[in-house]
Input
Amino acid sequence: MQSLLLDRAIGSISALEFATTLSETFYGILHQTVKSDVFPPNCHRNASVNSLSVEKNEYRYLLSGCADSSIKLWDLKDQDSKEVENEVDAKQNYKRNYDAYDYDNPQSTFSNIATIPRKSVHMFGISSIQWWPYDTGMFVSGSFDHTVKVWDTNEMTPVHTFDMLNRVYSIDICGNDTANKFLSTALVAVGSDQPFIRLLDLRSASSAHTLQGHRGKTLCVKWHPQNPNLLASGGFDGEVKVWDIRRSKSCLCRLDMLKTNNTSLNTDNLTKTSVKAHLGPVNGIEWDETGTTLYTAGNDDKVRVWDMISSLAPPINKLINFGPLTRNKYPQCIPLLLNPRSESELQYLLFPSDNGDLFIFRTIDGKMVSRLSRKGTKNVGRTTSMVNAGPFTGTYYCGTIDGEIISWSPQWDQPNLEDIVEDESFSAFNPEKQNRLAQEAKDIIAADSLIY
Output
């Protein structure tokens, strides 16, 4: 660390290189946050926190949607003081024993600035919630009460309701704001109890399009990060499909776990009866930031990585093995989360296992970097939602099935300054040392004058 600080001070490395090198170390030292920068204990009263969403403009406001149909808005830059530091935590300042902290009584917690009480708007649990990408004035929520609602954040009231006639499992917003307003889009993809995907147009407040093709429920949907016309979906039938919403035959390709190179099964599989991406329902999908790689998770306990550009359709299964510890048996949509690509040389995948642990894997080879386990009296609930607190922070917020929101952040052991004893023989204020150094300098100057 000292050499890194020196290189940055003398300009050998840029600020970005310094931040990237530092961020690379975060994922091996993540711990559950304690004392401050945490959420109130049992903030959702034992009901599952099904969805979290943080706005990407300032990374300040966080929305949490709960299984009891309540919604809460949190200010991550403001904290409410709870109590003074207790004796147990005061002793942990330097030599940190993370099992000894009092996780149930933090000193300060994030401020809850707005709450939508249970059953006041949505009648059943919130399945998905998401900010509008461009500002904090609007967000969208989907619920098991068959509705998708568009909200005005300033008033915290719904301004429009879409009746989906089926339970909503996941939503994803595609906001493509261009100079040509006729080319701008504001679509919400909705995965529900039906074997088709509904596209909702926020500009006209109507259902704009229907994508048919899955057999059974559509569990998860995710827009392409670069192309606003491409959408990926995962279904209860074990299939993953990529759609081009501009085409009359919208299904662009189907992901086949048996295609592992450019030569195998290099044929169009759109007409085949069954093409499996997983041997079970697919309940997790995540694109990388460039849109060249797709990550999927299924109830077969597998996480698969797909190369979307190196061959003609269908894409290639890269056969990256994430080990035997991943557990995923619940059909509800689970969060797969990638760290921001710019903050580290390698990219990392965060996977919430059914046993309650949070695994961090390297995406390049599937190697496990860290295994995070909850602390405190409530430490067994699995993670049901996740968000990143911002680039170069290494901080993540995870909602759990028992009503908690857990903060994870990098933690370093700090030296106890009281234990540092200064050796007077090396002190810069030692008179004898100063006189000796001054005499040596005079001798060197005198020798140089004799040479020249």
User: Anything to note?
Assistant: The radius of gyration is 26 Å. The mean pLDDT is 87. DSSP finds four helices and 28 strands in the chain.
